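Hello, quick one for you while I still have it in my head. A protein chain has come my way and I'm curious about its shape. I'm sending you its amino acid sequence along with the backbone structure tokens. I'd be grateful if you could look everything over and explain what you see. Here's the protein in full, and shout if anything looks odd to you:
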Amino acid sequence: MDNYFKVIELFAGVGGFRLGLENSTKFKVIWSNQWEPSTKAQHASLVYEARFGKEGHSNEDIEKVPTSEIPDHDMLVAGFPCQDYSVATTLHNSKGLIGKKGVLWWSIHRILKEKQNKPGILMLENVDRLLKSPAAQRGRDFAIMLKSLDQLGYACEWRVINAADYGMPQRRRRVFILGYLKSQKTYNNLFKNDPFQWLHFDGIFSKTFPIVDEEQKEYTLSLKKWSLTRLTEEFNVEGKTSPFQNAGIMVNGKVYSKKVKSNYAGLYRSLGDVLDHDNVNDDFYLDESELDKWEYHKGGKKLARRAANGHVYYYSEGGMKFPDPLDKASRTIITGEGGKSPSRFKHVVQTPKGLRRLTPLELERLNTFPDNHTKLEGISDSKRAFFMGNALVVDVVKRLANTLEKNL
């Protein structure tokens, strides 16, 4: 009998989950899948194979991979595609689970449903907007996920984790979901436990990332009598706010959640801590002739826009600190971080040599990846930046893995 948890990694990207889990000797990724439908060249998959090898790695559309070809496993992890919920677009325009890439949630569902030997543990990651999308039915998408997991025999706990709140060098807020199959001891412990006790003290998240209440109000609801179809059509059709807060549990169809905040007393890392002062190509320094454009993009402005019906409205955005402060955790990396063109969202730092953009290595450090993890012949700096805009913070997974190792 193997003395480690066999893991499959879906929507693997460049392997953030794997790096975090395999830091512990208790977890071993035995099969992975990475497929990018919008490009002919599979750059992320190439990086994954270069770092972890080709054995057990699939580079084909997961929707076309038969469940029978996926090996039995103890744990399934997935940072499933989040373009439909991304903070780079407005919530009103997000499509949630019915979006072009959002439907890939059902690939996870299909594997869990068809596997006779279901994985005992799930670890899922997405943008925190998942808890309140779509705009017309706040929380509907998450309710559908919770209901489908309940039907498959899982209880779960979730937490929105801002990596910077726990000492990491980037303000990157993501929702993590841990699922436990009914056959797991953890499921029974969760079922028998007081929700407050689990959320604050006994759960994997609370043991890894301590919290205190941000408000005393508790949010509860039952999904037991809801069907997936009814949830899709009727859930929260009149509600203006989501019933799902940034921490919660679901067991046997019953949901309990609260609004919490971090309770961390450790060391903090800043943007300045990750800078590489020795190996920066001149291309990363800003052209003085374009400083006005950079200042315009970073500054506050009020812009007139025209709606589809011809109505003119004004869009306002506040000013940003330019350059980015080095004594604090960085802003969130997005996929458009690469390239020379002036932009509101790209990071710019002041150095003795002048103002410059962040290098791919520095972006990797902000996500706590190993240095030059994405460096590979044929992979451009812009593509490496794109990888980091899509990636998770490895140390979040690493800390969760350490707690899971001690408690499962």
Observations:
- The chain has two domains: 5-266+393-407, 271-362.
- The first helix runs from residue 16 to 21.
- The chain has a mean pLDDT of 92.
- The two ends are 16 Å apart (CA to CA).
